[in-house]
Specification:
alpha+beta, Aspartate Aminotransferase, domain 1, four-stranded antiparallel sheet, 7 strands, globular
Length: 223
């Protein structure tokens, strides 16, 4: 994921015109986007009823394991009876489901958490806006901040190696952990390789500014 936000409202207009189903993966948006963190539907002002199936992993905002799949009663009944993923996988342990419910309760009771996250995203964006040799390619409201090379080396393989070297140096010299993203052979639309940073409400302003300054030093030395 490169931190882009899908224009769900426009997709729904196309759905209503051309009559196709929409399956929405909210893994990186549930608990993050929207006024109360309800995800992409709330962010784009789209009624949840217009989405045929919503899925999400629970290892991100909910800090547990497993995932969920929701939709109309008719769709979910069909999934229970016909889905190979349901037939050949184990049920979620009750304690993980309980942890997810508790996390949702915390989000509902503390709306300031999403506000804090937005503030942290803005701090990181501002701090990295002038980083040498790299530019931010992600959406300003996404908690995934995606940095790409301003000038390619000429090949994807060389670009990726350079980005991995930057990430390794940031970890070894600055104790900053970032990830160089790789392309998947399964990607229908090949994304650019880049460095991926994840913003959390748990980060302090000091943490974020330190990360910015550290990455700037590494980038200045290598680009």
């Amino acid at each position: 994921n490169s931190g882009q936000i899908a224009p769900l409202d426009k997709i729904i207009k196309l759905k209503e015109k051309y009559r196709f189903r929409v399956l929405l993966d909210e893994t990186n948006s549930f608990g993050v986007l929207g006024r109360t963190g309800r995800g992409l539907t709330e962010y784009c002002g789209v009624p949840i009823e217009k989405i045929d199936i919503v899925t999400s992993a629970m290892g991100h905002a909910l800090a547990t394991e497993g995932g969920f799949c929701t939709g109309s009663a008719r769709v979910i009944d069909h999934q229970r009876l016909s889905s190979s993923g349901y037939v050949f996988s184990a049920s979620l342990p009750p304690y993980l489901a309980s942890a997810a419910i508790t996390a949702i309760d915390i989000l509902e009771q503390n709306p300031d958490l999403t506000s804090k996250l937005k503030e942290n995203i803005a701090i990181l964006w501002k701090g990295l806006s002038d980083i040498r040799g790299l530019s931010i390619a992600s959406n300003p409201e996404s908690p995934i901040v995606f940095l790409v090379l301003e000038k390619s080396t000429g090949s994807v393989k060389s670009d990726l190696q350079l980005l991995e070297d930057i990430a390794d140096r940031a970890l070894k010299q600055e104790s900053i952990f970032v990830m160089a993203s790789k392309r998947s052979t399964l990607d229908k639309c090949p994304l650019p390789v880049g460095i991926r940073l994840f913003v959390s409400t748990a980060h302090s302003e000091f943490d974020l500014l330190k990360a910015c300054e550290s990455l700037k030093r590494v980038a200045a030395a290598m680009l």
